[in-house]
């Protein structure tokens, strides 16, 4: 009898350890689109600079360069500084589609090619499931607070400069 209860206790402890380890693994993966909390990435030490006809506009940015980070993006983010944004870096130039589901802030979406040249600027409406696309392949998307592009004179054809853009492989 004693041997059997020790065996049962050992099996229960092993099962509990597995459940705890599994929970810790999934918790450590960070927020996903199913979570109802904002993902906050570290601010890149180098500002992104938008080079416009009227001068340069620097922005502090978070860089979303993994699938999980690009999927979560600015979802659930309720506020952001006027000079802050998120740069989405894709593995190659491609057609991209964004939407604003679970994003309570209106945004400017600035689409740029491999060379950092802006190809399109679109507006994103809060909580909308409407597809936002530039209509051509791009490599980078910069999300800023709505109205920032117009206020700072950022237009199609302007240049985005940042190490993540300059060092992105072709």
List descriptors.
single chain, 170 residues, alpha+beta, Jelly Rolls, seven-stranded mixed beta sheet, globular
Give an overview in words:
There is one protein chain. This protein is an alpha+beta fold and 170 residues long. The chain folds into two domains: 1-30; 48-166, Jelly Rolls (Sandwich), CATH 2.60.120.1140. Helices cover 24% and strands 29% of the residues. It has four helices and seven strands, in the order H-E-E-H-E-E-E-E-H-E-H. It has helices spanning 2-28, 67-72, 148-151, 163-166; strands at 48-52, 55-64, 84-94, 107-112, 118-124, 138-145, 159-161. Strands 5-4-6-3-2-1-7 form a seven-stranded mixed β-sheet. The protein is globular, with a radius of gyration of 21 Å. The chain starts with a helix and ends with a helix. The model is unreliable at 6-34 (pLDDT under 50).
Furnish the topology, listing elements before pairings.
Elements: H1 2-28, E1 48-52, E2 55-64, H2 67-72, E3 84-94, E4 107-112, E5 118-124, E6 138-145, H3 148-151, E7 159-161, H4 163-166
Parallel strand pairs: 2-3
Antiparallel strand pairs: 1-2, 1-7, 3-6, 4-5, 4-6
Order of helix and strand elements from N to C terminus = HEEHEEEEHEH
List the quaternary state of the chains: single chain
The total beta strand count reads 7
CATH class of the largest domain: Mainly Beta
Short synopsis of the structure:
With 170 residues, this protein is of the alpha+beta class.
């Amino acid at each position: 009898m004693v041997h059997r209860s020790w065996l049962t206790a050992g099996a229960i402890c092993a099962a509990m350890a597995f459940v705890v380890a599994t929970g810790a693994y999934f918790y450590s993966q960070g927020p996903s689109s199913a979570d109802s909390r904002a993902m906050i990435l570290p601010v890149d030490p180098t500002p992104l600079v938008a080079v416009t006809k009227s001068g340069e506009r620097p922005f502090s940015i978070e860089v979303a360069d993994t699938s999980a980070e690009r999927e979560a993006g600015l979802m659930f983010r309720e506020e952001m500084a006027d000079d802050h944004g998120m740069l989405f870096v894709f593995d190659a130039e491609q057609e991209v589609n964004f939407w604003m589901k679970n994003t309570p802030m209106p945004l400017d979406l600035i689409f740029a090619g491999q060379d950092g040249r802006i190809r399109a600027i679109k507006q994103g409406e809060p909580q909308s499931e409407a597809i936002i696309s530039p209509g051509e392949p791009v490599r980078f998307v910069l999300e800023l607070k709505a109205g920032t592009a117009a206020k700072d004179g950022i237009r199609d054809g302007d240049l985005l400069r940042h190490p993540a853009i300059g060092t992105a492989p072709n």
